[in-house]
Design a protein that fits this description.
Largest sheet: 8 strands, antiparallel, barrel
Structural class: alpha+beta
Radius of gyration: 18 Å
Order of helices and strands: HEEEEEEEEE
Helix content: 10-25%
Strand content: over 45%
């Protein structure tokens, strides 16, 4: 019964991902029609903070996990976490929601893959959608204390309001600041319309 509930949750979030993916091509076509109006790409750095236990007040913070019962030490997780942009620039103070799907294998060398979207909202109509791909690997630390490294890629996949027409891509890493606080650092290039 519990697996059915988790599976229903996974299917619901997958429907959201599908809806996002279907919405993006039209937005990209609109942005491509403005390609001649883009300025030169500039270096871009963005820092996000997430409290993975509590999230932002008034915003959803959900984590649903399906553990495989086949002895493989694997699980898949659907996450919807909320946080804030803390770096300087036009996005400072914006709220962020991560919509993610993660596949993890536990063990001495835990590893995982994740894909999803960061939805950055500032005001009621200014929204920036970033598609993310993540990888988790285990690195040797002090003897007996391996640690996980999270890194990946991001790209602009859509935007509304004053963010409309933004283009960009780059790398990302996630740092564990405490038991519940995570720092996301996105670096790359961004072109403004």
């Amino acid at each position: 019964m519990q697996h059915r509930i988790v599976l229903a949750g996974i299917l619901s979030l997958m429907a959201v991902f599908t809806a996002c993916a279907e919405a993006v091509p039209g937005e990209q076509q609109h942005n491509q029609s403005q390609a001649g109006q883009l300025t030169q790409a500039k270096p871009f750095t963005l820092e996000l903070r997430f409290d993975i236990k509590n999230g932002e007040p008034g915003l959803p913070n959900e984590y649903t996990k399906l553990v495989f019962a086949d002895g493989s030490n694997r699980y898949v997780a659907l996450v919807r976490r909320s946080g804030k942009v803390v770096s300087e620039g036009m996005l400072r103070g914006a709220t962020v929601q991560e919509w993610g799907f993660h596949e993890v294998t536990l063990g001495p060398e835990t590893n995982g893959l994740g894909t999803g979207y960061l939805v950055i909202t500032k005001g009621s109509s200014d929204i920036l959608y970033l598609k993310t791909q993540l990888r988790q690997i285990t690195l040797a630390g002090k003897p007996g204390t391996p640690h996980s490294a999270f890194n990946g890629l991001w790209e602009v996949s859509g935007a509304t309001g004053k963010f409309n027409g933004l283009k960009g891509a780059g790398t990302l890493r996630i740092n564990r600041l405490s038991e519940s606080e995570r720092q996301w650092v996105l670096e790359g290039e961004l072109s403004e319309p």
